[in-house]
Fold this sequence. Notes:
Shape of chain A: elongated
Helix content of chain A: 40-55%
Radius of gyration of chain A: 25 Å
Structural class of chain A: alpha/beta
CATH topology of the largest domain in chain A: Rossmann fold
Pfam family, one (chains A, B): Peripla_BP_4
Protein name (chains A, B): LacI family DNA-binding transcriptional regulator
CATH architecture of the largest domain in chain A: 3-Layer(aba) Sandwich
Distance between the termini of chain A: 55 Å
Largest sheet of chain A: 7 strands, mixed
Organism (chains A, B): Roseibium aggregatum
InterPro entries (chains A, B): HTH_LacI, Lambda_DNA-bd_dom_sf, Peripla_BP_I, SBP_2_dom
GO molecular function, one term (chains A, B): transcription cis-regulatory region binding
Oligomer: homodimer
Largest interface: A-B, 48 and 48 residues
Amino acid sequence: MKRVTIHDVAEAAGVSLATVDRVLNGRPGVRKTTIAKVKQAVDTLNYKPDVFAAGLAKKRTYRFHFLLPNGPNAFMEDLTREATSHAETMSGDRMHVHVEPIDAFDGHRVAGTLALLDHTVCDGVAVVAPAFPEVRAAIDRLQDRGVPVVTLVSDHPASNRRHFVGIDNVAAGRTAGRLLGRFLPRQPGKIAIVAGSLGLRDHAERYQGCREVIEQDYPHLDLLKVREGRDDNARNADLVARLLKENPELAGLYNIGAGNRGTISALSASGQAESVVVVGHELTPYTREALQADVFDAVIAQDPGHEIRSAIRVLKALCDGVPIIDGQERIGIDVFLKDNLPAVTDRPDSTE
Amino acid sequence: MKRVTIHDVAEAAGVSLATVDRVLNGRPGVRKTTIAKVKQAVDTLNYKPDVFAAGLAKKRTYRFHFLLPNGPNAFMEDLTREATSHAETMSGDRMHVHVEPIDAFDGHRVAGTLALLDHTVCDGVAVVAPAFPEVRAAIDRLQDRGVPVVTLVSDHPASNRRHFVGIDNVAAGRTAGRLLGRFLPRQPGKIAIVAGSLGLRDHAERYQGCREVIEQDYPHLDLLKVREGRDDNARNADLVARLLKENPELAGLYNIGAGNRGTISALSASGQAESVVVVGHELTPYTREALQADVFDAVIAQDPGHEIRSAIRVLKALCDGVPIIDGQERIGIDVFLKDNLPAVTDRPDSTE
DNA sequence: GGGAAAATGACTAACGTACCTCAAAATATC
DNA sequence: GATATTTTGAGGTACGTTAGTCATTTTCCC
């Protein structure tokens, strides 16, 4: 039951402490036969370095920057809240999480913010990457400077980001399409789609997924052309009101992006809320209430807390050069109906 | 940016190191005015103890026992696999997770296993608690001996367990009912329910939730009386085959417990698989395949990896006497359709 | 076999906290 | 005001690792 230390390893391998240290920490100047001896001893003794002692000795600190959109978006606010709250609780663990609001619609500003970072300021960056080429370039340059970058929520696959923390948006769109197809009766009907902008990668992918499923498995359903509301509540309210007026017999509605609040108010005002099957994204106080009031029928979501924690773990793993446990870092596509809503936690008000 | 240590706190408070230590670790013999001075200094300086140094110094080890059912059940196997895999990876963190298989159907044996534990052997216990009174008593006695106990997957609310790590099974049942109600056309139809045993708390709760929703919102659907297959594949296959023969026009089927493999094979064999809407529990290789083949229409699940990690975090928090972050420890009710299945991870074969 | 280079050993000082002892000072008790 | 008691200070050791330095040994090459 006693702990195996490097002393034991040294003894077992018949070498000195210094040599064991050289092997364990990959320092140069050790013959490979000796390396083998040490490694052999390590795993016959099943030596595991003491994380506490190691952490103390190398007095490493992890400084991470989180670049998160600052818009009036309940999901992003949740993400920011989770990040700042972790910034506090983990500061004892030699973690310094700095949250920096960015304007996700201004590619140059985001690229500029990224350009200011290097290893003197931080050891890792998580960014909700808008799909601008200058952002991709800034990510790549930052990594060339030795700072690992992970994308959060919205990926930028063309870049060299080391990891993406977020959901598979095509699959999310497919799920939305499946729910619409199955919730609606097997008869012709029209489905409206409201997105923020198809220029946003995640929105485009969700649309693609939804369309795939509807066209393949529910051909009796007719997808109206996508309306873009720029994730703005007022615009969405307007769009949805008009859609409902133009299509009094509308069967389904898929709100691909944010701006749920606008969509919900237009639906409620129209009096058609219950007859239209509506699927939205992200669990916020508004979508939650809409589900309970049968205005929304399903919500596809991703857990912001999981995403922040996962991003931190991944960045730490990248800094330490240890492998990432894929299974643990996979972010699930959550499906919420009115019946499986998580209990509310006490949170300050937010807008969307 | 430099780290605040107890030295700084001592200096700021105008007391000695020893006194700071006494206050911080709640040792006796300090005047309350002094305590106040120190605490004041602690939070003006925002002192946070260094977890690495503390961990090293108090060479604390956390020894946790996980008592998990050993039956041929893919979900429990996943749970066991996650637990043993964490036992390895966390052994460096002074965590010793011991997994002990139990026969969940033998209350006396489980109680006997619990009775053998005390603080000389382990610092915390997580148990998938079968609903026997002797198990409740054993849990309470174990806690009286100073070992915190959390229940896992299946709760025992009457006991004094400190926490329950698992899903709200009533809500899970409601979700299943909702999916059946919404996937089926709005016309009369029969729904069959196969459980392991209504004597199992989680199964009973799921049934209750499902019935609530169906009776309230989908009264045109007729719930057949529950068949109990004891989570056994052969029994389930038999039951389902008979159900399908007796009810050729069966509209829906809810498989409340394990034994999915039996249910699936009977459905496939009957040729009625596609016409019956089927909801099952837990994501296993079999239910996954059934979803993809349109034999199952939805699967309600809980993530075994999350549950194990949560149980470990909770037990550690209980040992350290620090508060539990509720939001982080809440286990979600996952809903899987064929479209939002997580990518498969490489795992050894399992049976169910 | 002699000299250079490479490999290894022996030691030490951190890192920040926990926990212990013993003495000194402050306060309480009569 | 003397004594008993409580409170505080000073100092040390231990925890297991990292990351050095410098001396010594081994190996290699001509």
